[in-house]
Amino acid sequence: MSKEDTDFFSPNGKTVLLVEDDGTIAEEIAAELTARGFKVLHEATGNAGLEAALRLEADIMVVDRLLPGLDGLSVIETMRQQGIRMPVLVLSALSAVDDRVTGLKAGGDDYLTKPFAIEELVARIEALLRRPDDTRSTKLHLGPIDMDLIERRVWRDGREIELLPREFRLLEYLMRRPGQVLTRSMLLEDVWQYRFIPRTNLVDVHIGKLRRKIDGPGEEPLIESIRGTGFRLRVPD
Amino acid sequence: MFLTELFRTATFRITLMALAAMAGVMVMQFGLVYAQLEAVESRRSTELLKGEAELLAQMSPEHLEYVIRRRATDDLRLIINSAGLFDSGHALIAGDLRTWPKGLKADGKPHNVEIYPEEGDSYPLRVLAEKLPDGTILVLGRSFHLLSEQKLMLRHTMLVAAIPTFVFALFLGIVLSHRALSRVKEMHEAIDRIMAGDIHERLPAAKERDDLERLAGSVNRMLDRLERLMDDMREVGNDIAHDLRTPLSRMRARLERALSAGAADPAALEAAVGRAVDDLDQCLGIITALLRIAEIENSRRKAGFGQVLLADLVADVFDLYEPIAEMEDKVLVAKEGEAPCFVWGDRHLLIELLANLVDNAIKFTPEGGRITLGSQRINGAASLFVTDTGVGIAPAEREAVLSRFYRSDKSRHVPGSGLGLSLVCAIAHLHEAHVTIETGAEGIGTCFRITFPSAFLQKVEDCT
């Protein structure tokens, strides 16, 4: 991966609390996050993780589901009972059907099953730190694109673009997260509410179709591909 | 030790029960004969006593007295064992009955009375007293001696007959249970060998003539089935190992080459690492799919179940796959069923099922081909179907296709974990639905059909 692909998000020294008992994985994650400008606090047990969370030093917590002592879900539950709203990403080696559901019910904000690509983790941490702009406004505007959410219409530089409902949904999701790297599985999960779909290049095909519609001949491409990771809607200068 | 084992066999217990029954029947039979003997003797003595009394009563008193006196040396003694002529005051006139038997009534009917002779023990006697016209009383008695002799003989006979019978039956029981025991022992040994790992061993079942052999036959058939399953599992294991080894060895070769090229070509190194990650992803994909199948197969939880409209699933999966079919120059068509089909199920799992079928169909359909998906109600049962115009599956191959890792020779070149259909089967099974493979429309290609049980449909209709 080339360097210019990675410096899209400036963490501004945000602190990630990593609660993970597997030393090797923790080391890898910490190294990668530090390289990208995050500060990392690592704890190896649930109890230590909970204490660190209660000290309010971190901006986001990444917690393994299975931990020695207090398990991941109890850490989150206790933390939430104390009124701490810090976003939490749950890591798990389990992939049971309702495992994700219990993880989210306990107060997790996102759930990632091991093994995962480190880019996937970074993209999700970023997404959690930058909660999407879910304002009630019925119109979205980004660079040359205007979107009317009531009439379900889209214009680029005043030229109306005909989109299928699924393409409109996809573009709306991108418009709400400008400049943010979105992985294929995030798109599948959030736009289509699917998990475990046999091919991930499905998303590429959908993005390709959307691209051909919104980028006219000679116009600047708006959706960038991030190699090995996913896509990003370019924020105009 | 051996004997206790012998006594604990079912055969021996049955022998003992038969023996007890036999003894019971024997006792009953002897009892009947006994009773019969007594009745016959009683009737006979009554007749004899009455007949004799009648005969004697017709004699003149002098002659009668003479006969009674002489009777002591007469043949008559054998029939009438005691006799006496008494006057009306119960005093003896003549005969060997010294005293008037206690409690005897002179009514001409036989009575059983106890006689107390002047010396010796008392003994029972069947006695008849007849009043004669001259006022004297004739008393005739017959002892039970004969009867008791007959009874004694009967008892002896019974013992003589019973003892060898019982001994013989016991012997037979021991022999039979010994045989049964040795057969069971053979089976035990066979089972021990099987448990020790010799899965090809079978129980001795011969021609399945009796219950034990039939049972052994059933166990053998069960073992055959288990052995087949184990073979299947071993095959699946081999297939997994093979499917994992291919990308791993490819990756190893690539990384080794990149390593030897070293820092001379950083771009090549980066490319090699990138491809290695892709290979690893393929391996992980296989493992994830396997775990997921196992998880769905073992899942008895239906927490995520609810009412699902099949047409919605069809629309969603169509929406997701239409662009990819278009990109690959194939036509994807969604067909509306005429009646709405609701089923009771897990929406996410059913989407996964349908997506896998459509994914497969797209993979195996040549360019310009057509894939149709839809829902249908057939004979009241809701069903999902995916039809393609691909190479088709020979009827003989259809069952094998649904097993894990099956890859038709025609499709070896198509990438994939080979687990998609296994996943489809696992999800269908969780929904108690059937997966069937038919020939596609107009005899071309394949049609996969998932038929849901009508009970689920009923459940949904009850809820609405």
Automatic annotation (TrEMBL), chain A:
Entries under SUPFAM superfamilies matching the protein: CheY-like
GO biological process terms, semicolon-separated: regulation of DNA-templated transcription
Location of the OmpR/PhoB-type domain: 137-235
GO molecular function, one term: transcription cis-regulatory region binding
DNA-binding region ranges: 137-235
The Response regulatory domain, residue ranges: 15-129
A GO CC term attached to the entry: protein-DNA complex
PANTHER family with a match to the protein in the record: REGULATOR OF RPOS, TWO-COMPONENT RESPONSE REGULATOR
Keywords: DNA-binding, Phosphoprotein, Transcription, Transcription regulation, Two-component regulatory system
Record gene name: kdpE
Protein name: Two component response regulator KdpE
This protein's record includes keyword Protease: no
Modified residues (4-aspartylphosphate): D64
Cross-referenced Pfam families: Response_reg, Trans_reg_C
From TrEMBL, chain B:
EC number(s) reported in the record: 2.7.13.3
Main location: membrane
CC per GO annotation: plasma membrane
Localization per record: Membrane
TM stretches of this protein: 12-35, 152-176
Coiled-coil parts of chain: 209-239
UniProt KW Protein biosynthesis keyword: no
Alphabetized GO MF terms: phosphorelay sensor kinase activity
Alphabetized Pfam families for the sequence: HAMP, HATPase_c, HisKA
Domain Histidine kinase: 239-456
The HAMP domain, residue ranges: 178-231
UniProt xrefs under InterPro entries: HAMP_dom (IPR003660), HATPase_C_sf (IPR036890), HATPase_dom (IPR003594), His_kinase_dom (IPR005467), HisK_dim/P_dom (IPR003661), HisK_dim/P_sf (IPR036097), Sig_transdc_His_kin-like_C (IPR004358), TCS_sensor_his_kinase (IPR050428)
Catalytic activity: ATP + protein L-histidine = ADP + protein N-phospho-L-histidine
Keyword entries, A-Z: Coiled coil, Kinase, Membrane, Phosphoprotein, Transferase, Transmembrane, Transmembrane helix, Two-component regulatory system
Protein's recorded name: histidine kinase
